[in-house]
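Suppose you are handed only these lines of text.
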Amino acid sequence: MKQLACNFLFVNIILLIVSCSNNNHAATNSPAINKKGITKINWGNTDGKDVFLYTLTNAKGDELKISNYGGTINAWSMPDRKGNKSSVIIGLDSLKNYLQNPPYFGALIGRYGNRIGGAKFSLDGKEYHLAANNGKNSLHGGLKGFDKVVWDASIINDSTPALILNYTSKDGEEGYPGNLKVAVKYSLSDDDELIIEYNAETDKATPVNLTNHSYFNLTGDVGNTILDHILMIKASFYTPVDSTLIPTGEIKSVTGTPFDFTKPKRTGSDINNVKGGYDHNFVLNKKDSSLQIVATLSDSLSGRKMEVFTTEPGLQFYTGNFLDGKFGVTGKPLKFRTALCLETQHFPDSPNKPKFPSTILKPGEKYHTVTKYKISLL
Ligand code: BGC
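From them, the structure of the protein bound to beta-D-glucopyranose can be written out as follows.
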């Protein structure tokens, strides 16, 4: 009996040791996943350059994934009201999928965000011709915009993990004048703020309009549309467009139109009264270029809310009107209106619209804009 008890104790001690060592194993693994800081994995290569996927983790264990291919945000994950973690930004599963030319999911856009009418503009008496990659217009920087190049990345692993991406766009690239040196800093704060700082310098006058093209679905599930998201945009005016989505040059009041989001409203309430859905630039109610809150988006299903802050004068609200299920996220097709974009920017076609705020960067000037997306629970 004594021997039996002794054996029993021995077996239990062994089990305890095994289970402790297993726990230790798990314990050393899980903090490695959730530990604040930055990790990177190899994601393949293109253009003869290595591509990586970086994960920025904040103190809460929430994660932002970015690739140096196109400066693309691949995921931004945090818990919903019930504690279930999911990404509010749409991302594809592999570099291979991004190389199939998706419609700019999460990408850094440049040299000129949105459209330039007739794919041309004049500057200092010279006419410049761009690739017409959207009907007769130029969209999001041309055939190989900043979303399709491999950026040089450097990591900042201090109190706020950050990734700095550098790219030099050569004089004449995609038809634009001047060597443009661009540096974009992505950081993730412990308060679930995704902060994007854009910097650029040129050696010849050139239009510059940088933005990020993240598609959001706050439910974290692309099986849901975004039509029940509640949106508020601090904009009393918007820029109407022609049939090719080029601004007509007018600045119109939103009052009494489907474009009135000055008070929180379901994105779906008036969408059927807008031909094709929302794909418009809103003129933000700002008097200067300080960083200010310009929009809020919320979703009662997940209990998530997003606030948008920017130094920019405009915001492109796009309701995923061209999503057609061709691309998918972890097996689920991205269908019509399952994601929306809130792209902070200067107004589309500004180089051809002298009355719009200027987008021309001159040698010696510093381009610097900041945009911040902040997620919290309702
Ligand atoms: C534009 C849309 C375009 C989309 C591409 C948006 O910024 O305004 O017209 O289809 O980008 O994904």
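What can we learn from it? Residues 2-34 form the longest helix (33 residues). Residues 176 and 206 are 7 Å apart (CA to CA).
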